[in-house]
Automatic annotation (TrEMBL):
GO terms for cellular component: alpha DNA polymerase:primase complex. Residues 70-88 have a biased composition (Basic and acidic residues). GO terms for biological process: DNA replication initiation. Keywords: DNA replication, Nucleus. This is DNA polymerase alpha subunit B. The gene is POLA2. GO terms for molecular function: DNA binding. Residues 63-122 are annotated as: Disordered. InterPro entries: DNA_pol_a/d/e_bsu, DNA_pol_alpha_B_N_sf, DNA_pol_alpha_bsu, OB_DPOA2, Pol_alpha_B_N.
Length: 579
């Protein structure tokens, strides 16, 4: 048999035999085995050119035809399954469309026909349905974003705050050296798990708003030494002081002519129009609780809410070394690709700078991403999210930093409700480095109070606020409203994309005190500002469309209270940096 194999292998050098291998798509070793089997059935047929032609006619041609018929049948079955799937999806879309109102533009998927060929991207998706996702590529079309790769200004500092000159942006030498991190309210009194929603009644919403008016009203009464508030509906000849909530007289945008003041039940519970013509300066938004002093419905004096009590930490919590905190907000992919290159670049920054704490805010799997909306992924959204988080945890293991994950309303794998419960990650429950918190929340980091929210309240309030004579710094006005209204989302009614549960909002959406640092990411321009003693940071988003965005970093240290009693900000320095 060995001599026969050697002889046949030598004959394979013959052009005719090589041609047989190529035409029948068969390897040399496979052809040897086929010839051994064939010659055995022919009583040890000798290897000649005539025998090879007979072998090709009786064995190889039949084998080739069998393969071709199998391929045709397999292709036919695959094409039939694809068309059946497309028809089923179209029927489902038509059924859903019959229960919904028309949206902007048609989102229906067109059938593939010779007149309307399939796009290259869709063809690539169907051609590789089993493509495994990797930390750098979470989509079947693993094409990196060209604009993100060609971005300029990498690592450029665009905003500075505090004494940044000579600042060493690095964490402590020891891994996670004694960083104290906990929720201000404690785990028992914080939103720690999912809850049932979409069951609230209008009466319950009204009760929450009424309690909000009464609670802030008591603070205003004490702060401005007001004896009592007058009913808004009773006519009066003298100047009166009234308490209420700002609202609009229609469903449109608030303006100076459409302002109404809605009083609580103790002040009559009615809505009255407000004349702002005699006010020299004002800044109002729907849902704001204010005190107005004037005659009839003419406002002459507008009083803001009482400021918070700032957080104070005892001297036993003083930290000897500053704490380095990195802050980043999603999305973590460019808009034209689902490759997580920006996230990998952020992990490289964490490994290089070695911060003590990383505050990572969603969205991690962005519901507004084009490929997510069209479901052009090969795994479930939960699986993609788990891979994303595991990449962060594994990639920063050598640093030993604490990781805080904050969900977003735009995370497609999570509950679409506000306040939003923390993520559920059973695989990471035992990892002491990982902390899962709700949106919003108040966090203590080495005794420094952080207010965290991933909801873009800056953008929402900026579209509704009206002002006159208050200067051009709109960001500071809105941030001051949040701090003085003691709420992470004081706007009422909320924008349509915020699904508010007011009973949970009353318990978990308020600011128990003015935080030392407020992290408030937004689509608006990044900044770091000191607003009434609170350092407010908008780190921007890690990606802006198809290009890279920004992240933030802070150096904090809680110091002992000075002898004169004045409050000293624990934020030593802060920067916003391009990824």
């Amino acid at each position: 048999l060995s001599l026969l194999l050697l002889r046949l292998r030598s004959h394979l050098l013959c052009p005719s035999v090589v041609e047989q291998c190529i035409c029948n798509r068969i390897q040399a070793d496979e052809m040897v085995l086929e010839w051994v089997a064939y010659s055995t059935t022919k009583n040890g047929l000798k290897l000649t050119m005539d025998a090879l032609e007979q072998f090709e006619h009786e064995v190889l041609n039949k084998k080739s035809k069998s393969k071709q018929s199998f391929r045709k049948e397999e292709t036919h079955n695959r094409t039939r399954d694809i068309h059946s799937l497309i028809r089923a999806e179209e029927e489902e879309e038509n059924l859903l469309d019959s229960y919904s109102t028309p949206a902007k533009g048609s989102q229906k998927r067109a059938l593939t026909t010779p007149e309307h060929p399939q796009s290259k991207r869709s063809a690539a998706i169907l051609a590789s349905p089993g493509l495994l996702l990797s930390p750098a590529s979470f989509s079947p079309s693993a094409t990196p974003s060209q604009k993100y790769g060609q971005r300029g200004g990498k690592g450029e500092v665009v905003v500075t705050f505090g004494a940044v000159q000579g600042t060493r942006w690095a964490g402590r030498k020891a891994l996670g050296a004694g960083v104290r991190l906990e929720l201000l309210e404690g785990s028992e009194d914080s939103l720690s798990s999912s809850y049932k929603y979409m069951f609230q009644r209008l009466r319950d919403v009204r009760n929450v708003l009424t309690e909000k008016i009464e609670e802030l009203g008591e603070g205003l009464k004490t702060h401005f030494n007001i004896e009592e508030f007058s009913p808004v509906s009773l006519p009066a000849q003298d100047s009166i002081t009234v308490l209420g909530q700002v609202c609009c007289d229609s469903n449109g945008k608030l303006n100076a002519q459409s302002v109404l003041l809605e009083a609580g039940p103790e002040q009559g519970g009615q809505q009255v129009p407000v004349d702002l013509s005699e006010l020299k300066e004002y800044s109002l938004f729907p849902g704001q609780v204010v005190v107005m002093e004037g005659m009839n419905t003419t406002g002459r004096k507008l009083m803001a809410s009482k400021l918070h009590e700032h957080s104070h930490t005892s001297s036993s919590h003083v930290i000897a070394e500053p704490t380095n905190v990195l802050v980043a907000c999603g999305p973590y992919t460019p808009s034209d690709s689902l490759t997580f290159d920006p996230l990998l670049d952020l992990i490289s920054v964490i490994v290089r700078d070695r911060p003590d704490v990383c505050l990572l805010l969603g969205p991690f799997v962005d519901s507004k991403h084009d490929q997510i909306e069209k479901a052009q992924v090969t795994e479930t959204f939960e699986a993609i999210f788990s891979r994303c988080v595991e990449s962060i945890v594994d990639g920063t293991k050598s640093v030993g930093c604490r990781l805080v994950f904050v969900p977003s309303q735009r995370d497609i794998n999570h509950h679409f409700i506000y306040p939003q419960p923390p993520f559920t990650l059973p695989n990471l429950n035992k990892d002491q480095r990982v902390t899962l918190v709700p949106d919003p929340c108040t966090l203590l980091v080495d005794g420094v109070t952080f207010g965290l929210t991933s909801t873009d309240i800056l953008f929402h309030m900026g579209a509704e606020e009206i002002s006159c004579g208050t200067g051009s710094d709109r960001f500071s006005r809105i941030l001051k409203h949040m701090l003085t209204q003691r709420s992470y989302y004081p706007l009422y009614p909320p924008v349509e994309e915020v699904n508010m549960d007011y009973e949970k909002y009353q318990s978990f959406g308020q600011m128990p005190l003015t935080p030392d640092v407020l992290i408030i990411p937004s689509e608006l321009r990044y900044f770091v500002k000191d607003v009434i003693g609170c350092v407010c940071v908008n780190p921007g988003r890690l990606t802006k469309g198809q290009v890279g965005g920004t992240y933030g970093r802070l150096l904090i240290q809680r110091s002992a209270a000075p002898d004169d009693g004045k409050r000293v900000s624990p934020c030593l320095a802060a920067q916003v940096v391009k990824i």
